[in-house]
Amino acid sequence: MPDPVRLPYSQLDQLPDRDPEETAEWRESLDAVTKAAGPHRAAYLMRRALEHTARTEGTALPSLLETDYVNTIPTSAEPDFPGDEALEARITAWNRWNAAAMVTRGARYGLGGHIATFASAAWLYETGFQHFFRGKEGADSGDQLYLQGHASPGIYARAFLDGRLTEEQLDHFRQEAGGAGLPSYPHPRRLPWLWEFPTVSMGLGPLSAIYQARFNRYLEHRGIKDTSRSRVWAFLGDGEMDEPESTAALALAGREGLDNLTFVINCNLQRLDGPVRPNFKIVQELEAQFRAAGWNVVKSLWGRAWDEVFAQDTDGALVRRLREVPDAQFQTYATRDAAYLRDHFFGADAALRAIGRTLSDAKLLELFQTSRAGHEPRKVYAAYRAAVEHKGAPTVILAQTVKGYTLGAGFESRNANHQMKKLTGAEFRTMRDLLELPIPDSALADGLVPYRRPAEDSPEMRYLRERRAALDGPAPARKVVAKPLPMPADKSFDALKKGSGSQEIATTMAFVRLVKDLMRDKETGRRWVPVVPDEARTFGMESLFPSAGLYSPLGQTYDPVDRDQLLYYKEAKDGQILNEGITEAGSLADFTAAATSYATHGEPMIPFYIFYSMFGWQRTADQFWALADQLGRGFVIGATAGRTTMTGEGLQHADGHSHLIASTNPAALSYDPAFAYEVAVIVKEGLRRMYGPDAEDVFYYLTVYNETKVQPAMPAGVEEGILKGLYRYQEGARPQADSPRAQLLASGTAVHWILEAQRLLAADWGVAADVWSAPSWTELRRDALECDAARLDGEDRIPYVTRALSGAPGPVVAVSDWMRAVPDQIAPWVEQDWVSIGTDGFGLSDTRDAARRHFGVDPQSVVVQTLAALARRGEVKPETVKEARERYGL
């Protein structure tokens, strides 16, 4: 019979109870404690019991997802602080001053900048710089630092103290046009010797950090680089954790036990315009999320001033009160007087009032205005030490701070402080006094706040240099030492250039075959990193499973269901394929880590990320922008491309616009190859440009198709046209000497449509049409724009597209499986009459032929559009167009 006191059922009811009487005794004991000492005492005893069983070998109990609103590490358990706290305090004070001065000086030009974020996090960074963050001058890769974008002024101030930046450079914060300025945020492309990782597009930093830590393990397990000493540190804001990407990969990090990863979340309880969780507690919410995902959680909330207060909390009233007060109220406490604190916080019940009577007004103000663990180096050091010593799981440190700390009452804990870009002279004097900096009033008299740093032979500077030398040099730092990769043998590319004979293959399969051959290359084969979001079989990549293996840090702990098949699902600790599951965001984060390994680890890797074309750029264009910022190199493959090649899949699977999105990314070289030999030429050139002696910071985007076709052999002399974006593939036969002429341009699978249109035009209407393959509309446009700019400088440069089509008779009709805006990119530089045909609008489910007829891009529609263009020129009769429409049923 169910116990009437309990819930009507329990999950445990389905399991046999070997001793029901013993179970009943335990319940009765708990009831007795609750009755005698209250439910909070009972809960305390249960938690003590849970902690004890967690430490008992062989006892498996789930851990609590949420703990009290107190520090994880008691003061009595903190390790000895190994540094000189007084010297570190002075160094931190100079950093605070120079960061605020830099932003305030820039405010003269209306440039803005953020002050309050670094002010709250200064000790979180400085403790790392003094004791934990390893540089890149040692024998290994050092640490990887994902630094919070809005804290960049503090990082620049640190580099100024290091001697890596000058006052002139600080005065060019956010003034980059002249070439010597400092970017607003961590942008490797703008400051490639300092920044490694772009992080200010919030949410991408935490996601990228997880996959970077995972890729470090991948390199180690594959025997490419010993990364065992490298640690990934990601500094994040509590408001930033609302971005879905911030928590998207927590389970991956927990599942794979990435104990080389530490998140430091600055919990100042404020997002950009107000409290993060006004009516709730963000620290408790994050703790539950991370614990549930398998992370080690270290809460570092209260400073030492709270210790004596907690010691008086014999019945848990203080802890309960801390837990129940919402975050927005804590922000109010940080700005109110002692009377308000005494009445509002400690007046909640008799036990709290008793504690409150023992505290002076000054003590009350210290507790709520300044005493946060994130502002005390010993607390921060203890949390960091716990993180680096923890094994088997990643660690998140939830460090509580005050936003705008040390900037004065006008900044601290104010909802508007994210938008406050400068301090007044009076506020600087208050800050100087608080930080005890030796800056005379006379230095502040003219309103232009000076930069300051100690003398080179001062104790502070000697200490700073000694600490960084012990940690392998300055940080953050980006250092490229990778050597060029040798080019693979031509035979791998020659196979595609010869064509497929009578066999029909899709360009997707042609690419996979090429990469499979390249992965066998003795010199560079092991450097290929296939990245797939759970669609490897869709793209015909299952042939790589047994030979390359799928990466898993555990290897394969099970017998795969298809083990008896030739192409079985093989996981291995040294597996080469990163099969990420259904996550384009995670796959692109993986790709980014591999694409920048040449800089991060000095090991050039050749990643290719293959995905459903529709779900690449549309979902993750922001990450592609960050990839470009991080100077990534590799191949991005949009498979099953185009709006009409995905038979029956419909609106959300039909991509007609990714090339338009890709064209907005200056680092993306976009190609839409029609034939296998074009794929070979483009990939070979990509390897040369990205991994050769003069390596460029670009990446390649290729769209490939799932539509099988006979692949022709490569005509002679077309390589230049393929790479530049246009070449004449087939000249049209003239039915008569005076036949009307037209030029048909197409990319990708649309080339096959215009080849059929070419036949119909000649056979049915006596029109001679030349067929041109346009592998890259975007590269043609970029070349034309460069020529336009050069002509303004007095150079005589003609765009390639203009030269290629020069003298070609008749109108130009451009066709693609993309929206018309894609080929329309080159229209201004085409001298002939221009017509474009594309797949504008949403996709739909149907056969390929029906979808192409619907969008008006099938061969018959191309014929009608060509005849209409010729009719406008007076080269065919107007009634011919109507006749053609009727003949083809359009």
From TrEMBL:
Chain ranges of the Transketolase-like C-terminal domain: 725-858
Binding site for Mg(2+): 238, 268, 270
Catalytic reactions of this protein: N(6)-[(R)-lipoyl]-L-lysyl-[protein] + pyruvate + H(+) = N(6)-[(R)-S(8)-acetyldihydrolipoyl]-L-lysyl-[protein] + CO2
Keyword tags: Magnesium, Metal-binding, Oxidoreductase, Pyruvate, Thiamine pyrophosphate
Domain Pyruvate dehydrogenase E1 component middle, residue spans: 488-709
EC number: 1.2.4.1
Domain Transketolase N-terminal: 148-301
Cited Pfam families: PDH_E1_M, Transketolase_C_1, Transketolase_N
Record protein name field: Pyruvate dehydrogenase E1 component
Annotated organism of origin: Streptomyces kasugaensis
Gene name of the record: aceE
